[in-house]
Amino acid sequence: MDNRALKYFEAVAKAGSIRGASEKLHVAPSAISRKIVQLEDQLHVQLVTRLGRGVTLTEAGKELTQYIKEMQVKENEFLAFLSDMQSMKTGTIRLATGGGFIDDLILNAISRFSKKFPGVQVKLDVCGGDEIIRKLREEQADIGLVLNCPTSPQIDFLHREIFQPLSLVVNPYSEFGQLEQCTGETLDSIPLALLDHSFSIRQIVSQIEDSHGCELWPTLECNSFQALKLFALSGAGGTLLPEVCVDRELKNGSLKAIPITLMPTEQTSVDLIMRHGHEKTVSIEKMTQEIIKGMTVFNIANQAEPIKKELAIT
Does CATH place domain 3-86 in 2.60.120.200? Predict the structure, then answer.
């Protein structure tokens, strides 16, 4: 239906006459009359009955008046919804991340975002790198946090940084806690808990093996960062993780990070990504800002230098 015709009809219904509507709208009576006739022709029903200088509404006219009122209410509700979205009073944002970023992400980004925008629900999915990329491509997540994301026309990089090197993480009071550095021979002699091969960090471990000419056999192989930390805390052995993954434990002294010699020269990146063409809503922009500004992994001192060309965002 013609919005202008509906506007004219509503004014006539309120004024009780075409002339009254004309005076209110500052539109010629003939123009209003023509629009109402066109509306009646379109709907194949009479909307008004003309009586002298005034009009009365037919049953159909009364129903149309109610319809216009309901549409105005819905329009106002929709505009209010859009306004709330713009001011971040409501909404949902879906994040997919690797398990190693959980503490850093929640403590230094999600918590700050939620304090600023308590009406926005955050849905967090923890999974491996390939699964994160799949979820983005299939619109099951808005933002992904992953290691070494391959370049693809389907993926946009929101931010990219050089990732920390891996360290041997142990209980400082265990028999391994006195080490100040770790060689390949040392690694080969320590019981290790390692992530399985579906994780990007395990690929970095493979690079360490190549560098040292050794093959590490894990005492515990799993898909849980928490399990790795518990194994190290138990004193039964160690694990290989970047310091950012055990930041809290390093600060409270329950774990110790020991540098590994002959670390691979090939750099690893930590990537904040989204699907190419996905709408970058206000909530995504705000969450992206909190992640880049707040997460330790994006704000480590030795990452202050410009990222090398091979890691440049394309």
Answer: no
The domain ranges of the chain are 3-86, 91-163+267-311, 166-259
Query: Global pTM?
Result: 0.68
Residues 129, 135: Cα–Cα separation, whole Å: 10
Tokens found for residue 67: 């319809």
CB 267 within 8 A of CB 302: no
Distance CA 260, CA 264 (A): 10
61: its two tokens: 């006219």
182 pairs with which residues across the strands? Answer: 260
As assigned by CATH, the class of the 166-259 domain is alpha beta
Tell me the CA distances in angstroms from 12 to 3, 32, 37, 44, 62, one per residue in order. Answer: 14, 9, 13, 19, 12
217-271 pLDDT, tens digit per residue, is: 999 999 899 999 999 999 999 999 999 899 899 999 999 999 998 876 567 889 9
